[in-house]
Amino acid sequence: MSEPDVSVRSIVAVSDHQVSSELGGEVIILNLESGVYHGLEEVGARVWGLIKEPAPVHAVRDSLLNEYEVEPERCEQDLLALLEELKQHGLLQVRDEQPTA
After folding, report:
1. How does pLDDT run across 51-74, given as a tens digit for each residue?
2. Does domain 10-96 have CATH number 3.40.50.150?
């Protein structure tokens, strides 16, 4: 079964099949299944830090909007693109947000 698409309503977390390390404000990630290294620069590294524990995408977006001067639409588009890329490389777990009771 494939994971759902990443949306603002998704809950995301780093994959169990990776190890990562911060280095000079950047993050280096090793996919343990493929043996491929990936790197994230400053903002990507911040996103990685925010999703080490499962988090709703909209909460990650809101954190970024509070920390960086960026237009909300641009922030959301760039965040979704980054998360989709992480997912494609097997570095992200995605699930649909649980409905509120």
Report:
1. 999 999 999 999 999 999 999 999
2. no
